[in-house]
Design brief:
heterodimer, A: 236 residues, mainly beta, five-stranded mixed beta sheet, four-stranded mixed beta sheet, 18 strands, 2% helix, B: 647 residues, alpha+beta, six-stranded antiparallel beta sheet, five-stranded antiparallel beta sheet
Chain lengths: 236, 647
């Protein structure tokens, strides 16, 4: 819930994300701008920030006429009852394959809006695909194994990047104009920052997100029922 | 004198009896407590034990059913879990096992069996590699395949006894995709757990043999092999005695699958109580020991003064009058000791007096000073002269200004008496009647230290007075032998004071107290004679029979000298003079003439007795001097005070 896509964007502005527009330094010969920056996620411990490498950054609400995104093919493997990678950012319309490397059957599904899918039970060596046609966050689960969770951020533009281990990111060849820089992280949720970028600017954007109170909430199975009701965790 | 624990008559001494009684009571109380505790703890055995076994069985049964209930819940949940059903439908053993292993950890079950819709084994978590056997006819699977959940004890095909809960695997309608059985193995661990809940040891037998599982009870089971029958015999296992009772175990479908044996160790259960019993014994023994010691100490402390007094009494009874009467604590015992001390003092005084008188008699040269002699007996038998037809006159005991005293036998009362025949012949009727009156008054005095006046008899020649006969001598005779030992003198002085006190109590004064009027019997009892005679005889001063210059005036008080009113205090003055002479050997005043003597009584301060008798105690000296005060008001107010001052 707390990691969900927020419709209330004012909250993110209020978060005080700020952008520094640095004057394009040297060459005006390069037509493209660069959006780069740093994401800091406050963890439960004040001293040590949470790992930011699960965050993704993309540009949204681009000016008209900007080149559309190009769909691609991506893979999330099920191995040792885990999704690998756990976070994926893909352009809208992409295909994501879920090959099963485990000896047991898995049932990959998602209930996330227009991107919902249920790949059914399949065993080792099989790989089933889902096509993600709507921008937004897609939560991917296994109907058998509650602990298996993956996130796919379906990006509406061709400009996106994964945040590196040190929190830095860089989107090269960014278009000029006014648009939003958005960041998503499971712990920190969604943040957005409006920027105006010149043709060959290098824009630094810093995001500070609060992940200190994040707890992954239990989710429902593909039939909309809690896993706990069928497991005997209440055995006494 | 009375060493040991018994007195002379062989009875237990007071201290011993007290100590025995107190320790006995304490010991009895301690023993009673222990006995009660013992009875209560002992009652826990016997029938109570059988009931305890039944209760334990009920609790164990309840615990079994509770576990079965949990197994039902787990099997039911899995049977209705869609993903699980999907796995079963797929028949994928690896996925099913993987899933069940997760459930095992969560549910705490020992294992699961899963069959397909035909009852063929798909997965067995305890035997992952087991072949696909057909279980469709087995007790739990058959009903589950028919869509009915079931639970109970089940003997598996391999003989293991398990708690099993079977559920069909269904979704929505009645389509049975397979069955799931949740299992708990009825093994040692479970038996121990049940035993823990039931507060007993529990062993389980399968029908027809011993339960294969069960290592820790191996020895017990060996011993119990022959016990799989009802009843509650005792059985010894590894040196410990158990009460045991076995109950049938009913399996699925009502089949008997074995027996459960409940064992309780009374010894172990009673260990705490036994410890209490032991502690009680120790505490009791300690209490008794302490109580005995305390009793002995306490009894000694209580009875020691008594024992001391007893010892002193025994010594005194044995004749040792010098024995010291011990001081006692300040209570009744001290009062007793004081009384005893004064009694001893009196005894000692008497004894001293007797000793002294005996020495006087032995040392007497010439005629004995005794007033009474055995001649009297002979005289009386002679029956020489009879006065007034009543008194047989004996020898003359003495004579004085007032008359002659005879020893006589009073026929009227059949008693030996002293008969004083008055010289004075009075023709004055009034004076005569006053004399009779005075004598009658004097008759009222009945005191140990006063010569009893019996009667006054009218004679032709005058009056005769019959009195108590005192077989002894007068103090005057005694004094002629010189001063007395202080103890003897003090004893006589106190008796004189006591005699005066007795007379004064009757309102009678003597007014002519002198050594000649004090008689001493052979036991040293002093008796004052001639009470009531002085006043009526009147003016006796100077009337000395033998013409002695020193007659009665020697003892006369200043107020009598001056002719003023005399009273009891005049007797005290005279007593002071007598006492002076008694202790010092001479009277305080000596003179050539009566006039000088009387003058001295009036004016001269008496000498200090200690100047004449240095070993005289100061208390006696000051008592004498106070009695000799010229002013009656400065003397002792009563003879009692005088007597007390002499103590």
């Amino acid at each position: 819930m707390s990691a969900g896509v927020r419709s209330d964007r004012r909250r993110f502005r209020a978060w005080g994300a700020f952008a520094l527009a640095a004057a394009a330094s040297a060459s005006t010969t390069l037509p493209a701008a660069t959006v780069r920056g740093r994401v800091t996620i406050q963890g439960a411990s004040e001293r040590r920030p949470a790992d930011p490498s699960g965050a993704v950054v993309y540009l949204d609400n681009l000016p008209a006429g900007t080149a559309p995104p190009t769909a691609g093919r991506f893979t999330i493997e099920t191995k040792s009852k885990r999704f690998t990678p756990q976070v994926l950012v893909v352009p809208v319309g992409s295909r994501v394959a879920f090959p099963n490397s485990d000896a047991i059957l898995h049932n990959v599904f998602s209930a996330s809006g227009g991107n919902a899918f249920d790949l059914g039970l399949y065993g080792k060596g099989d790989a089933k695909e889902a096509v993600l046609r709507e921008p937004g966050l897609v939560r991917v689960y296994c109907n058998v194994h509650e602990k298996m969770v993956a996130f796919v951020v379906v990006c509406p533009s061709r400009y996106f990047a994964r945040v590196r281990d040190d929190g830095s990111f860089e989107i090269p060849d960014a278009p000029a104009g006014r648009y939003d820089v958005k960041v998503w992280d499971e712990r920190g949720g969604m943040q957005s920052s409006s920027v105006e970028v010149g043709a060959s600017d290098t824009l630094d954007v810093a995001f500070v997100m609060d992940g200190s109170r994040y707890v992954r909430a239990p989710h429902l199975d593909k039939n909309g029922k809690p896993y706990s009701a069928r497991a005997s965790t209440e055995y006494e | 004198m009375t060493a040991g624990r018994t007195d002379r008559k062989g009875r237990l001494k007071l201290a011993t009896r007290l100590a025995l009684m107190m320790s006995g009571l304490t010991a009895a109380a301690a023993l009673a407590g222990i006995a009660v505790a013992w009875t209560i703890t002992s009652r826990l055995e016997g029938p109570e034990l059988n009931r305890a076994l039944d209760r334990s069985h009920e609790v164990a049964d309840l615990a079994l059913h509770r576990r079965l209930g949990n197994l039902e819940l787990v099997a039911g949940l899995l049977g209705h879990d869609p993903p699980f059903r999907a796995y079963v439908t797929e028949g994928d053993a690896a996925s099913i096992l993987d899933n069940l292993k997760e459930r095992l950890a969560l549910s705490g079950c020992d294992g699961f069996l899963v069959t397909d819709r035909a009852g063929v084994l798909l997965a067995d978590t305890r035997r992952p590699g087991a072949g696909a056997s057909d279980l469709s006819a087995s007790d739990p699977i058959a009903p589950a395949l028919g869509g009915r959940a079931i639970s109970g004890l089940w003997r598996e095909p391999d003989g293991s006894l398990v708690l099993a809960a079977a559920s069909p695997i269904v979704q929505g309608g009645t389509d049975v995709a397979g069955t799931i059985v949740a299992l708990d193995v009825l093994d040692d661990a479970l038996a121990t757990e049940l035993g823990g809940a039931a507060g007993a040891e529990i062993a389980v037998f399968t029908e027809g043999g011993r339960l294969p599982q069960g290592a820790s009870f191996a020895a017990a089971l060996t011993a119990l092999d022959g016990m799989a029958t009802p009843g509650a015999p005792r059985v010894a296992i590894a040196g410990e005695s158990f009460a045991a009772r076995s109950y049938p175990l009913e399996g699925l479908g009502g089949k008997p699958v074995g027996r459960i044996v409940i064992l309780r160790s009374p010894d172990r259960e009673l260990t705490a109580l036994r410890r209490i019993q032991t502690a009680l014994l120790w505490v009791g023994a300690l209490a008794v020991m302490v109580a005995v010691a305390a009793s002995v100490v306490l009894a000694r402390r209580i009875t020691r003064p008594v024992a001391d007094l007893v010892r002193a009494t025994e010594r005194i009874a044995a004749g040792d009058l010098d024995a010291v009467v011990p001081a006692a604590p300040d209570d009744e015992l001290e009062t007793l000791a004081d009384a005893f001390r004064s009694m001893v003092a009196v005894l000692k005084e008497k004894a001293d007096m007797e000793v002294y008188l005996a020495s006087v008699v032995r040392g007497a040269s010439g005629p004995a000073p005794s007033l009474g002699s055995t001649d009297g007996q002979a005289t009386m038998t002679q029956g020489a002269e009879t006065l007034a037809g009543r008194f047989e006159l004996g020898p003359v005991l003495g004579s004085g200004g007032m008359g002659t005293v005879y020893q006589a036998f009073d026929r009227a009362v059949g008693e030996r008496v002293a008969l004083k025949v008055m010289n004075t012949r009075t023709s004055d009727a009034a004076k005569a009647s006053r004399f009779v009156q005075e004598v009658r008054l004097a008759r009222r005095i009945t005191h140990r230290n006063v010569v009893r006046t019996h009667d006054v008899v009218a004679l032709d020649t005058g009056w005769a007075l019959s009195m108590e006969f005192v077989d002894g001598m007068s103090l005057a005779a005694l004094l002629r032998r010189g001063p007395l030992p202080i103890a003897a003198a003090a004893g006589i002085a106190r008796q004189i004071a006591a005699g005066l006190e007795g007379a004064h109590a009757q309102g009678i004064v003597h007014l002519d107290l002198k050594p000649g009027n004090v008689l001493l019997d052979a036991r040293g009892v002093a008796k004052i004679a001639d009470f009531g005679l002085a006043q009526t005889q009147g003016g006796v001063a100077g009337e000395t029979s033998r013409g002695k210059v020193m007659g009665t005036p020697v003892y006369m008080s200043p107020e009598q000298v001056e002719g003023r009113a005399a009273d009891a205090r005049s007797d005290i003055y005279s007593a002071g003079v007598v006492f002076f002479e008694l202790f010092c050997g001479v009277p305080p005043f000596d003179a050539e003439s009566v006039a000088q003597l009387l003058e001295k009584h009036l004016r001269e301060k008496p000498p200090r007795p200690r100047s004449l008798r240095p070993d005289l105690p100061e208390a006696i000296e000051s008592a004498i001097l106070r009695a000799l005060e010229k002013d009656p008001a400065l003397r002792f107010a009563s003879a009692r005070e005088l007597g007390e001052a002499l103590r």
